[in-house]
Amino acid sequence: xxxxxxxxxxxxxxxxxxxxxxxxxxxxxxxxxxxxxxxxxxxxxxxxxxxxxxxxxxxxxxxxxxxxxxxxxxxxxxxxxxxxxxxxxxxxxxxxxxxxxxxxxxxxxxxxxxxxxxxxxxxxxxxxxxxxxxxxxxxxxxxxxxxxxxxxxxxxxxxxxxxxxxxxxxxxxxxxxxxxxxxxxxxxxxxxxxxxxxxxxxxxxxxxxxxxxxxxxxxxxxxxxxxxxxxxxxxxxxxxxxxxxxxxxxxxxxxxxxxxxxxxxxxxxxxxxxxxxxxxxxxxxxxxxxxxxxxxxxxxxxxxxxxxxxxxxxxxxxxxxxxxxxxxxxxxxxxxxxxxxxxxxxxxxxxxxxxxxxxxxxxxxxxxxx
Length: 370
Prior knowledge:
By secondary structure, this protein is an alpha+beta fold. It has four domains: about 5-70; about 75-160; about 175-275, no CATH class; about 285-365, no CATH class. The protein contains eleven helices and 14 strands. Strands 8, 9, 10, 11, 12, 13 and 14 form a seven-stranded antiparallel beta sheet that branches. It has a five-stranded mixed beta sheet with strand order 3-4-2-1-5, covered by helices on one side. It has a two-stranded antiparallel ribbon with strand order 6-7. It starts with a strand and ends with a strand.
């Protein structure tokens, strides 16, 4: 049996491919790590990358190759499978309908069931078969339509995830995840420095443990207590507490750093892809104070333009009219939510040309058509 592993930065998933059926032990390890069997794809898929899953893939396969299949290509393969399911259900529905039609054609039009006649039993059985056949036909046609919708949505979802605005939001989430790991690492580094002081005595150790909140478990994983409670009760020594803290924080630091490195790699990929796509509307034509943008909250739900009153680090500030008129208030709009921009010079040129029709509240305008 040969095993290969791939990682796709498009969907952040690990995949393990096996040339033959996995043995029971390997199957148990793979599924316990979170890999799901995907027989149609011929592999085991992890819903997302984790250090433990990467370690298992490296142990089993030796290396992890890059998966060069794009989201859209993978979605097209999935859509093809769904279309096949839909075609099968449609064929079954057509066959069932023909069988029902054949039964119905054998009954004279308008012929009632002759109660007490020798044909009554057969007539009632035919009536039951026709009813069940029609019901099954309807269910199969619904199933065929369901799989067709699944096929269409699979491709649409993949294309949606590759939109520049969606990619920008994904970059923001990855950056937030990386900051979280950096905070975790720095906190553990700080505690590790406190526990590593050579002059640490019992009183100092209790003070550090009171802030550190480390727990202790036995060899079976059962919770025993916190380092502080055990140290305070004299159940562990200062040296044992120090060694426990050092091991724990060293592992936390290594794990957080590994996550951070992974997020760095994903950010490099996503930013490169965003640059290749030309970036968002704001990247191509930055909003500026005195200019205008179109977004969901510009006049008439995006049909008009809203004046930009301030440009922030990742957002712009516009004004929006109150629901009942007579006032306006500020609203911040993320760069990836901007649909179209006009510079201050373009706004002024439209005003001079008489094309600019301001709203009643003055928070924006419409462009008059010739």
